[in-house]
Amino acid sequence: MLNKVNLPVSIKNVDRLIYDQTQDKLLMVEENQDGTYGVTSYDGEEFKQLLKITGKFFEGHIFLDSQDNIYFFGNMPSRLYRTVDHGQTWKIVLDGEEMFWGFTDAGQGILYATLWSDNRPIIYQSLDQGKTWQIWQNFSTLFPEYAVKFNNVDTHNKMRHLHDIVAVNNDIYVGTGDVARFSFVSKDGGKNWNKIWGEGFTAHLLDKKNQILFLAADDSTGQGIARVDLQTGVVQDVWRPDNSGWYGYIYSLIQQNGIYYAGVHIENNNDKKLIGYGVLSSIDGKNWQKFVEIKSRADYSKVYLANGEDGKVYLSLDNSLYWFKGL
């Protein structure tokens, strides 16, 4: 079922993935054998390094906007890079800030991004299609009851950072973390925020045709995937990790040929339990089944998904790259 892609010898690890549909290429965050890291594209045959950064790799996030501009945020050094020519040239558009986790294009040149930070749950905004960025909303100010330490020995606030964000039909959805974990929606341009789900979503999938939004959790045993009917506003839990033998940490959701897929990984398996992880699939978005299952006692694993050429689904699995054909 899984087909392993032979990586160039220069690439040590493959991390997050995103599919550039207009170029019909996979974009991947990679860590290299020489200690550098950055972004590489893959068209099913050839790899091309688009961005190479000297520093220490810990985390890297890659985004696309509606104009097919590519963004990369690495955190050592902590910089947001932007390219408007598919990686031929890059410009640093934000320097010295903590990393963006989520990114969304609201149209008319307006972009939003969430800050994955230490006690700074902030939404950034760009009004010029990503050329410049400004702080737009601070959730510590909006929700001061969560801007307090969650115990007497830890320095982290109950709401210390934000997770994913998506703008849909003039509404903005945001997930929060780590102790105060909620999903909020604003229907009035950020003036008011209402809780819609008891988990701070770390990934999302928008099915525009059916007007359904899927939200994915960052939880070990509780909530897993929620289905939001954008026409009625009804939020329904459609998959939970309870009694599945899996944890519920999900950082990627995709749709390929009408089928939904979720990448589920392991975190904080401190007791070294034998835990399952891998890929879930769903035909109708309401019933989810195990599609690829791996068993491990690891403390942490990595699973990222992206669409691919010719109906492929790409899978970044524990630093290696695979592809499979969907249902």
What would you say this structure looks like, in words?
The protein has 327 residues and is mostly beta strands. The chain has one helix and 29 strands. It has a five-stranded antiparallel β-sheet with strand order 20-23-24-25-26, with no helix packed on it. The longest helix is centred in the middle third of the chain and has 4 residues, at 139-142. The mean pLDDT is 95.
CATH A-level architecture of the largest domain? 7 Propeller
Largest sheet: 5 strands, antiparallel
CATH class of the largest domain: Mainly Beta
Radius of gyration: 19 Å
Instruction: Please name the CATH topology of the largest domain.
Output: Methylamine Dehydrogenase, Chain H
Please indicate the count of domains.
Answer: 3
Question: Biggest sheet, strands in spatial order?
Answer: 20-23-24-25-26
What is the CATH superfamily of the largest domain?
Answer: YVTN repeat-like/Quinoprotein amine dehydrogenase
- What is the tally of helical segments? 1
Shape call: globular
Class per helix and strand makeup:
mainly beta
Give the strand content: over 45%
Mean pLDDT: 95
Q: Percent range for helical residues?
A: under 10%
Low-confidence stretches: none
- Helices and strands, in order, run as EEEEEEEEEEEEEHEEEEEEEEEEEEEEEE
Write down how many β-strands occur, each being a DSSP E stretch of 2 or more residues. 29
Please report the distance between the alpha carbons of the first and last residues: 11 Å
